[in-house]
Specification:
By secondary structure, the chain is mostly helical. It has a domain at about 35-80. About 30% of the residues lie in helices and about 0% in strands. The protein has helices at about 1-20, 60-70, 95-110. It is elongated and about 90 Å long.
């Protein structure tokens, strides 16, 4: 394999040197084809054939101008709803007060009132209920009943 690689590299190097010393002459009798007749950029619309502008012989500036004319059509400026990353996320979007109240209600319903929580300032304070006579009685400890025996 190393012998084959050496032969390949020698042959490649020799051909490169010969090509740089003796460039391939171009055919002087051959005249390049005239640029294709293109329609005026002002006359283009959405239904026009833009294939003539996509040929290799067409200047890049003219090709870009034709594409710019094509994509300036309002049909290409329709939002489809799948562009999820187009919003400006640097703007603050606060949670509406109604949704905050629902979240707070769900939190207290599921987890009870947390001691570190303070009552919201805008929430109306509940009137205190006077203690009943049953509140003075100690609650029975059901877990200790089996240990006294």
């Amino acid at each position: 394999m190393s012998g084959d690689g050496q032969n390949f590299l020698h042959r490649w190097s020799r051909l490169k040197r010969e090509a740089s010393v003796n460039p391939v002459p171009s055919r002087k009798g051959e005249v390049s084809a005239p640029p294709p007749e293109l329609p005026s950029l002002d006359s283009l619309n959405f239904e026009s054939d833009f294939g003539a502008f996509m040929r290799a012989e067409v200047d890049d500036g003219i090709r870009r101008a034709a594409l710019k004319k094509l994509f300036s059509d309002p049909r290409f400026n329709v939002m489809d709803g799948l562009d999820v990353y187009i919003d400006d996320y640097s703007k603050e979007d606060p949670i509406p007060p109604g949704m905050l109240a629902q979240l707070q209600h769900a939190r207290t319903t599921l987890f009870g009132v947390q001691p570190e929580q303070e009552a919201p300032a805008e929430a109306p304070q509940l009137a205190e209920v006077p203690p009943t006579a049953d509140a003075d009685k100690p609650e029975p400890d059901h877990g200790a009943a089996g240990q006294d025996a």
